Here is the input.
Amino acid sequence: MTQRPNDTRLSVPRDTENDYSLDAARIRRDFISRRTGADLTHTGSFSISPEITRGNVENFIGVAQVPVGLAGPLRIDGEHVNEDVYVPLATTEGTLVASYNRGMRILTEAGGVRTTIHERFMQRAPVFHFDDARGARDFAAWIDARTEDIRGAAEASSSIAKLSHIERYAVGPMLHLRFNYETGDAAGQNMAGKATYAACEWIAANHPGGARYTLSGAMDTDKKHSQLNVLHSRGARVIAEVRIPSALLRERVGASAETLFRARLNSFAGSVMAGSANNGMHAANALAALFIATGQDAANVAESHAAITYVRLEDDGETYYWSITLPSLIVATFGGGTGLPTQAECLDILSCRGPGKVGRFIEICAATVLAGEVSLAGAVVAGDWVDSHEKLGRNRGKR
Here is the structure.
């Protein structure tokens, strides 16, 4: 039934006493079923208590059940993980798990993936407004002289957030400041926002004549890709790299190191022409599947999928060095959706649930992305990419 503009607006039912109950969820399902005719039998079939979704969702009606497959083992030689792992991937795309499983086999047989985390910061970027450019320049000098006071105000808002540094960008009569925080095992967007608000309020109270500001001047690029993130990092900057013998590539994907290298040169050119945020194959596939399985904010794939692939031939063409750099991987092992039961179980598979585990999870994400790059590149070059989707990815018209 379509509601006409002059009809009385019918709000979604809410229980002011206890809106996170089985009854409240059922009432809302009944409400929307009457309005639309939708059968919500599966949506309303779940094993969790609605109460635990408080803080994760509003107007709870049920769950979206996404199939979870298991890929691995994947051998990782990292700074936070040094073992074989099995990776849960939540997806509705046939062939995805099989492709990552193949890539993991190749990487493991090559000796494993080496992972390195360079840095990890979360940002909030307020903009301060002045009458002219000189006022903004004077303000920048004032900020530099009082960084420690600003740090104290920001960090007083949180027991976890640590202000690392403040970047400055002048535009006309404005000064954009990009606050960079260490945020522990949390992704930290809200934490950084709260800390920066406290810092900005301190600045406004202590700067001679006050200071007008907007808490976000859009240079923090929440859930949007930006070149600034590629250069300065947002979330984790992590690199996964491997050296694969050409003989192994020929055996597993039917293409030599030299053939893959030539294909990579072609795709580099195509990526440049397209203005792509990622000159590799498909980092978003791994990250989306991992994010959904483990309770990450799925919208962060918009930033996290950016990547820089670098390859070279070694040992007279008998070894293929392959690396991928993720400059803005935004993940958490604590807070948000990571504590929900299904998501917590998937984090347990990875031994990544709770405090002290975010470095391990970052490295697993990067290694999984590289596995997908190897497998898909091999499939494209060998010519079995379309065939594999026809074989494993056909799910048309099922009810």
